[in-house]
Batch of 2 targets.
Target 1
Amino acid sequence: MRRRSWLKWLAGGGAGAAAASWFGVRAATRAHPDGEREPGTAADAPRSTRRAYGHGAEPPVGVTLAGRRDLVVPPPARAQTAAPATHEVNLWVAEQPVPIARDLVVPSLTYNGTIPGPILRCTEGDAVVVRCRNLGAVPHTVHFHGRHGAQADGWEPVPAGGEATYRFTAAPFGVHPYHCHVGHHDDHVLAGMHGVLIVDPRDGRAPAHEFVLALSGHQPGADGRAAVYTWNGVAGLFAREPLKVPVGELVRVYLVNACLTDAAASFHLHAATFDVYRTGTRRAPDEHTDVVTLGPMERAILEFRLPTRGRYLFHPHQPWMARRGATGWFAAV
Ligand SMILES: [Cu+2]
């Protein structure tokens, strides 16, 4: 992140003011739709990159795919064993500024310091123990999608400075988002409090090159939509650094629509088609297509192979999302 951005953020009220306002999604800086600069915010808006094909926002300086690998590539599936395992997860909540695009740092709410939160992975039937420590100034929670006891649902606020422990048995297999769920929880989710839990079937899935792609919208734009859309919390990262996969080998995408700024969002892959497993909860694909549409917090597992060397574009088919940071590439190599 540029030093200038930090200084500007601090000069504008900084952490104290941000914490006191419990961090809705108010912008530290204002960004204009389509990555254009808005008058008076010249240095703060994401730069237009119209010279590049199909996207309008660059990632923050210093942010690389290698540095964010753990937020893009899920941990490996656990070896299949007869006995269910116990997974202990620590999630802490922090209120902090997070860079999401070039020259755009926003006051955010995070799990473990990143947007999105860590990718969690277990196997159906495993015991999951999530300890949430609220280091923030206002109440937060962790609410998991999927199936669990009502007492572990994460709707009860965890006060500032407090802790809560959620215990559940992972089910059903599939891909399930988790997110904060206090009060106007959409504010907290928009500010960064969301992540992905992958629950593998007990008999496993075929070996594949796996990625998590979680779409989110950030910052109110002038037209009521988000000003910036990101895959995995950073605008334009996969446009600058394509996701590389070997030609002809199975690719699996855990796709999550964590975007609450729009009624729906889609994922479109160019020059190839994919199997869609909605919510990932069944073994047979629901459809075979090149566009899948998801409402907020809906998700799907996509499987495909890229048959020849080359670059394969992907983006939401909502043009404003594609232009404002959510365009990327797979590169078959
Ligand atoms: Cu919260």
Target 2
Amino acid sequence: MKLCFFLALLVCSVAALAVAPPKDAGRIWISDVTIISPESLDSIGIGSVLIEDGRIVRVQRGAGVRAPAGVSVISGKGRFLIPGLIDSHVHLASVPGVGPTQLFTQRKALPEMIRQYYEQLPRSYLYFGYTTLVDLAVVDRGVLDNFRRAPLHPDLYDCGPSLPVANGYPMSFAPPDARFQVFPNWILDPEHATGLPAGYDPAKHTPAAAVATVKAEGGICVKTYFERGFGRDRNLPVITPALIAQVRQAAHNDGLPVMMHANSFDAQKFAVDAQVDVIAHGMWNWGEFDGRPELPPEIKSLLDRIVAEKIGYQPTIQVMQGLRANFDPEYLQRPAVRKVLPAKLLAWFQSPQGKWFKKELAGDNPPDAVLRARYDRGPIGQVDQVVAYLAAKNARFLFGTDTPSAPTYGNLPGLNGYLEMQDLQHAGMSLQQILRAATIENARMFHLDPQVGTIEAGKVANLVLLSKSPLESADAYASVVTVFVHGQPIEREILAASH
Ligand SMILES: [Zn+2]
């Protein structure tokens, strides 16, 4: 009896909804816009897009099509519609310009500065059109949970806790007593079982167990590293061919792509031999070939294998540009910096204490111009040549920024993606390659393509309306007018940091 009563109530309320739907709820018609969808770049034209309940339900080609009844119309006249951008390499818990060990102490000393930053973080990504992010190494799940709870935020996926080899990069950067807590999903190399925490369970640190942890925590990818070190941390232990083979097998059994941090010639050679799915950095370190004016044949043949084997490639040029930014007095003066960064953190970056990382990078403290030239001639010039070579062979580029890759204020959320696009164009990628890398290619690699990555009926309505064409200049990615997140239109200025 009671059940019937409730059923009647339910049927009654559903019927009421069907008879009198709230007008315009979730129905949006973007009219007469130039539709630029990466699966059909040969047939770009004017059209209109119908959004219902957060999804694209119709893409109508042709100009002047009449809007269906009962929709909110957003005129796209003279504008360009692209899928929401995907950045498949971010680290949300890391704060630009604030070191990981400092973060702990400064979280106490300057809590408001850090709090404002995290609060603005999701909006800064949306401000530059990023509606989907992949965090590659979860070190503080609380930050990700808060991000997902923010009223306006991009869709966020992650690779769960990453898989460093015990005492290798990047856990080597944390103090020995803390590193096993910060990177609990470390893998054990039985040949080098020294310096390990007392009482650890070896069964929890096999490649299969570590991949299972990622899967259990909802990860969509597996991140590991090949890095012998730099700066003060050199000759670090690295993953072996046998271990990476086990990682790969376990990950592929679970349908997860394997991503490898590798930015040197020998690391990328290791990654290709290991048949990883994604190389998560460009090759700015040419190892024995460093300083050569042109790509040597040994590197070219490795890049040929990356192309032939369709390995996903994230150039992440902003890693190096973000270090160089410390020596560019104009970087913090860019108007866009104020849009993505709240006042307190910006003020701190402009103070002498906020420039601690510059001092650390500068070493013997030569003039800024000398240091900028070193980056341009060295790692940036080298990664640019690698990108140009891969672009000419139409490699499988994926768009990722590695924001922030170091405690540098030169890697700010959202803005860093825009700058990466400029870098990619400068290095020699075509505008079509850049758009595809940041949409359909990222979506396919991470198996998100049923949801996002193109403007097609059935997909989530994550879209960006631009006032300039991204197929004419990478500058267009700064001309965001409206960002749609699950169909909700957000005017750009609402997303800017307040000052
Ligand atoms: Zn990274």
